[in-house]
Amino acid sequence: MHQSQYGDVVVELRGTIAVVTLNRPAKRNALNDALMASLEEAFAAIPGGIGAAVIQGSGDHFCAGLDLSELKDRDAVEGVHHSRTWHRILSGLEFGRIPIVAALHGAVVGGGLELASSCHIRVADDTAFFALPEGSRGIFVGGGGSVRVPKLIGAHRMMDMMLTGRVYNAAEGVPLGFAQYHVPAGTALEKAIEIATRVASNAPMTNYSLMHGLPRIAEQPADHGFFTEALLASIAQSAPEAKARVRDFLEGRAAKVKAS
Ligand code: 1HE
Question: Model confidence at 239, in pLDDT bands (50, 70, 90)?
Answer without folding.
Answer: confident
